[in-house]
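My current task is to audit a protein record that another person submitted. My question to you is simply how this chain folds and whether the tokens agree. This is what I was given:
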Amino acid sequence: MREGKGGALTEGKKEVGALGEKAATAFLKRSGYSILHKNFKCKLGEIDLIAKDGRVIVFVEVRTRFTSTYGSPIESILWRKRKKITMLANFYITKFGLENESFRFDVVSVTKDDGHLNIELIKDAFWEV
């Protein structure tokens, strides 16, 4: 936490992101997903979550917003980010020899309203760019 305007405590960007990823992970598990990796890192960057939904490998981008000043979490995933996630997914698929598996890209949106977290899952949110 950090001090914001008027001395009020506010969450920092990393804290908000970590809270969103934790909430998204719990939500996906309750929805029947198996979590394979959290914050998978390689030379190209990082994928928030990699999971399995049945037989499908799912690359999950988690977007958390506690204010609508800069738009919704979903609106923040521009083509550059989609391209980067696609490159990371291709690296992961090659690294683990998963070329014959089915996969998709999901987005989990986490917002805060009146102190409550709202979680929205968008399955197959985008395809390769």
